[in-house]
Amino acid sequence: MKTKYILLILFLIPFLGKAYGQVAKTPNQTYVGTYKTADQKSCPVSLTITAGKDGYHYKFIIKSKVKEGLIKISKQDSEVYLTFKGLYQKMPKKYEVEAQYIDHNVVIQNDGNAMNRFNVFGECNEDKYIELKKVGKR
């Protein structure tokens, strides 16, 4: 009788681990890497994306400022959007910064318009959009 219970327990352990979330899955490596603007003098922004057990993490370096947090990835049809949790645009309302992932690049709308005024990175006031290109391996 004890042997049957032991075999049953050994059979169920792998399934119970997955059911209770004990087996963590790390995100794929698609977005992982370092991204930089083409002109680091006029718009000194770099972004590093890493993958952890809790999802994707970002680290923006703008001049000497560092901003870090988690990324929420959402897909709509064939488009991919990144929301940088905890990173907010400046003025007038507090919205989290979003970007679009296009062909190994991260594109952020940096500046609003007359109807919807906002700014993400004041260091790049001249740029309506900031394009961060992936550096190194793709």
Structure description:
The model is unreliable at 18-24 (pLDDT under 50). Strands 1-2-3-4-5-6-7-8 form an 8-stranded antiparallel beta barrel. The relative contact order is 0.17. The chain contains 1 helix and 8 strands. Helices cover 13% and strands 44% of the residues. With 138 residues, it is mainly β. It has one helix at residues 2-19, and strands at residues 33-36, 45-52, 55-62, 65-76, 79-88, 96-102, 105-109, 129-135. The chain has one domain (27-135): Beta Barrel (Lipocalin), CATH 2.40.128.
Radius of gyration: 21 Å
Q: What is the 3D shape?
A: globular
**What is the C-level CATH assignment?**
Mainly Beta
Largest sheet: 8 strands, antiparallel, barrel
**Proportion of strand residues:** 35-45%
Topology overview:
Blueprint: H1 2-19, E1 33-36, E2 45-52, E3 55-62, E4 65-76, E5 79-88, E6 96-102, E7 105-109, E8 129-135
Antiparallel strand pairs: 1-2, 1-8, 2-3, 3-4, 4-5, 5-6, 6-7, 7-8
